[in-house]
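Reviewer 2 asked us to include a model.

Predict the structure of this chain.
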Amino acid sequence: MGVAIEIRGLSRHFQKGGQRIDVLRGADLDLAPGDSVALLGQSGSGKSTFLHILGALEPPSAGEVKVDGRALHSRPLKEIDAYRNRQVGFVFQFHHLLPDHSAVDNVAMPAIIGGMPSQDARARARTRLAQVGLGHRLTHKPGELSGGEQQRVALARALLLEPGLLLADEPTGNLDPSTAADVLDLLLDLNRDRRATLVVVTHSAELAARFPRRLRLVDGRFQEAA
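Predicted model (C-alpha cells):
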C-alpha cells in the first residue's frame, strides 16, 4: 500500500552568490495512501527540490514532513537510509543507469545494496523487467537500449522493492511524445495496480491532465490546479 504524507510549514532556502534564495515558503500538503499527483510549476519553482525532500535526499530548512504519521527528517540516519532504499522509488529524467552493467544488474542494484542475496535480487529484477515489457532485454546494457527502454529499466529499478512512495522527476522529458505516453501509462497503471503513492513532476499540462489530482507550485506553496 502507498504511504500517507503530511507536510506542514515546509521551507527550503539556498545561499548563492551571497544571496538567500527561498524556494519553498511554508508549504502545506496532504497526500493520502495511493494518491496519484502531477506537480506543475515554472522552471526553478522548487519542484525537484520538493521531491528530494520527500525522498530524504536533502533536508528542509524548516517545517516538517511526516510519513505514515512519523516525522521523516529527524529519524536516525540508519532509518533514513532504509526509508530511501525500501520505501521510496525514484525515477529521474536522466536514467542514472550504470553503463557497464546489464539491465538485470541495474535493476537489482538497490536490493543488493540493501543486503539481499544477489541471486534473489536478480530473480526479482527479471520479474520487474518483464512487468515493464523488457523481459527480452535482460542482458542488454544501457547503450544497447533506446531512450524509452532505458526509462523502463529505471522504472523497474524504482519498483524493485515495492516502495510505498514513487517519485518521478520529469520522467518523460527526454522522450518522444509516443514513448512519453507509454511511460506515463506504465506509471499510472502501477499506481492503480500496486497503490503506491505517486508524485510526478512534469512541465506538460497535457500529461498532467491525465492525473486525478494536479498541483501547481507557485511562490513556494502548493495550489490545487484545474
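The chain has a mean pLDDT of 88. Residues 177-194 form the longest helix (18 residues). We have added this to the supplementary material.
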